[in-house]
Amino acid sequence: MSTAHQRRSGLRRAGTRIRKVVAAVAVGAVTAGGLVAAAGTASAQTTLGDAAAAQGRYFGTAVAVDRLGEPDYTATLNREFNSITAENSWKWESLQPSPGYFDFSTADRIAEHARQQGMELRGHTLVWHSQLPSWVENIGSADELRAVMRNHITTVMEHYKGQVRSWDVVNEAFEDGNSGARRNSVFQRVLGDSWIEEAFWIAREADPNATLCYNDYNTDAWNTAKTQAVYNMVADFVSRGVPIDCVGFQAHFNSGNPVPENYHITLQNFADLGVEVQLTELDIAGSGASQAEQYAGVTLACLAVPQCTGITVWGVTDKYSWRAEDTPLLFDGNYNPKQAYYAVLETLGGSGGGGGGDGACTVTYEETERWGDRFNGRVTVRAGDEAISSWSTTVTVHPPQRISATWNGDPSWDASGNVMTMRSNSGLPAGGQTSFGFTVMANGNWTAPILGSCVAS
Ligand code: G3I
């Protein structure tokens, strides 16, 4: 049996196990909280983004700008995710390294990628004690720090106005441990307790349509001091009309901070205050079925809470994770989908997945050129580790878009004219690749087309 066959049958076995796991977690959710979560409706979504969208949610990832030149990184990103958070390049030290000097050049590459791919953006993060330049840390005057905070929030939010769905306005303002106290940051020391709400008022003024979030970690288990402290702050803000719309749960899990059994209860309690909840930096240390089970549980917790609008994992591949040694993500270092990937996909109601289609070939899309009324797209088809004698895939445009020209392939169309099937009988050697291209008349809609799976024979 070939390696590819072994991998595919291994994945099928994993899938069967995951279905059982998901069912078990669903039962847990029902008994624990009286909630019935809809896991696994029969649908054919084969990517995380599409499966989440079918559940009315987004599925995003943190992106490191430097990795966008790596074809497998970008292919996996573009195929699986429909929301992006900049892992580092939107932080204060990157955007305003010295007083009044703003540099958006790297950050804009993230925004441009999201725009080209029709993905949403999460803004991370406006005010945080870490990755903060020393010139800010050294400010001792309240008037000066207040003006500096206002200038940073306003300049950054206005730069991206209308492009960012949600902003982490304030990040990690509470201490770890059992004190429930505010973290001793320069903002807390110099401005006192009011600095957090001041930041939210400034943010609302800068982009009134963005969803404004408070974002933190170790806020997952309901009864801990930190969770309670954040909850009390949000409750207070809501009762006094401070403009907070959302709470971000970073969701970095490991054996010291395991996924709580009743995670959906924490999420629901916050949501009941009248805010959206989002899982903003999800990663879970571990491997195999145990990691997959925890990922399924977290996904199910989000699905169980109507106000949980989306999940972002903190990176595309284990090899570039901020804690790579924990292998905490959904794709391994070679971009192979892990058991955890299938667990999430199936919990979202999707199936198949992994970008493989039938496992023998994969397809990736990129926009190559754009004019005032149209854009060109290119689809790259890659064979797996065996030769294939034919391949096909679909490209679906969003009406009123129209495909006006194609090259390097023989297209056929469905009755609506929106779904183009591209087929080739010339085959590919093991590991070989080819591409085809097309022009889309935008007619006002610049969303990237939806790429189907690759099917080979
Ligand atoms: O870019 C420099 C490189 O030039 C230099 O050679 C190298 C040497 O150390 O450092 C590189 O910068 C590193 C940067 O990541 C980019 O890789 C920084 O040292 C390193 O501190 C930084 O770590 C980031 C960390 O935030 C900083 O606090 C992680 O990538 C990033 O994943 C992590 O993300 C945070 C969220 O923003 C907030 N929640 C927690 C989460 C995980 O810590």
From TrEMBL:
<keyword id="KW-0378">Hydrolase</keyword>
<dbReference type="InterPro" id="IPR017853">
    <property type="entry name" value="GH"/>
</dbReference>
<keyword id="KW-0624">Polysaccharide degradation</keyword>
<feature type="signal peptide">
    <location>
        <begin position="1"/>
        <end position="44"/>
    </location>
</feature>
<dbReference type="GO" id="GO:0045493">
    <property type="term" value="P:xylan catabolic process"/>
</dbReference>
<feature type="domain" description="GH10">
    <location>
        <begin position="42"/>
        <end position="347"/>
    </location>
</feature>
<dbReference type="Pfam" id="PF00331">
    <property type="entry name" value="Glyco_hydro_10"/>
</dbReference>
<dbReference type="InterPro" id="IPR001000">
    <property type="entry name" value="GH10_dom"/>
</dbReference>
<dbReference type="InterPro" id="IPR008965">
    <property type="entry name" value="CBM2/CBM3_carb-bd_dom_sf"/>
</dbReference>
<dbReference type="Pfam" id="PF00553">
    <property type="entry name" value="CBM_2"/>
</dbReference>
<keyword id="KW-0858">Xylan degradation</keyword>
<feature type="domain" description="CBM2">
    <location>
        <begin position="354"/>
        <end position="457"/>
    </location>
</feature>
<comment type="similarity">
    <text>Belongs to the glycosyl hydrolase 10 (cellulase F) family.</text>
</comment>
<dbReference type="GO" id="GO:0030247">
    <property type="term" value="F:polysaccharide binding"/>
</dbReference>
<dbReference type="InterPro" id="IPR012291">
    <property type="entry name" value="CBM2_carb-bd_dom_sf"/>
</dbReference>
<dbReference type="InterPro" id="IPR044846">
    <property type="entry name" value="GH10"/>
</dbReference>
<dbReference type="GO" id="GO:0031176">
    <property type="term" value="F:endo-1,4-beta-xylanase activity"/>
</dbReference>
<protein>
    <recommendedName>
        <fullName>Beta-xylanase</fullName>
        <ecNumber>3.2.1.8</ecNumber>
    </recommendedName>
</protein>
<keyword id="KW-0732">Signal</keyword>
<keyword id="KW-0119">Carbohydrate metabolism</keyword>
<keyword id="KW-0326">Glycosidase</keyword>
<dbReference type="InterPro" id="IPR001919">
    <property type="entry name" value="CBD2"/>
</dbReference>
